[in-house]
Amino acid sequence: MSGKPRLTYLNGRGRMESIRWLLAAAGVEFEEVYLETKEQYDKLIKDGFLLFQQVPLVEIDGMKMVQTRAIMSYIAGKYNLHGKDLKERALIDMYVEGISDLMQMILMFPFSPPDAKEKNLESIKERATNRYFPVFEKVLKQHGQDFLVGNKFSWADVQLIEAILAVEEKVPAVLSGFPQLQVFKTKMSNMPTIKKFLQPGSPRKPPPDAHYVETVLKVFKK
């Protein structure tokens, strides 16, 4: 093994994308294994690789880690992106949980029935502009710093820039009423590790298409 973290998931965003973002933001190179058949997935379960019979699976530091939040918490701690003390970590965790609620809606959107797509898109826009983005706009405005917690780049910042870009793909003008978040987006996008991840040819995955949805349903079918 090369010593690089090894990520096992489908060749698409899903629950692994936030893990890719966090590793990339930390400047960590990783390898990927893509599931394309139900047989591959079943074999991982049979071989005991998936503790709860779920992916993402990340092999790192001799561990076979599952559960997205646990994986990201470990990566954030390992690469000093989880705050300097318990209070900062609590804030980071709180912000990450909030952003994850919004990301869950985006994650499920490609699987919406055609007649529900418009309604679900409206829900994403409404939640982003009225519930989630105002929180981070206020935080950044109140402390006047570049980052969400402790004026230091953290896991929460990575999650937020990922969420902003994901919502903008669906609602391009979503940041029009959030000047602080516009500045934040520009600063984050120009950080060297993130800028590299946003370039074509990086491990960042494109928005889910019909083929991705089809593969997910095929691999995970009961």
From TrEMBL:
Positions of the GST C-terminal domain: 85-209
BP GO terms, sorted: glutathione metabolic process; xenobiotic metabolic process
Pfam families, A to Z: GST_C_3 (PF14497), GST_N (PF02798)
Domain GST N-terminal per the UniProt entry, residue ranges: 3-83
UniProt GO molecular function: glutathione transferase activity
Gene3D superfamilies per UniProt: 1.20.1050.10, Glutaredoxin (3.40.30.10)
EC number of this enzyme: 2.5.1.18
Keywords: Transferase
Coiled coil: none
Family listed: Belongs to the GST superfamily. Alpha family.
Designated name of the protein: glutathione transferase
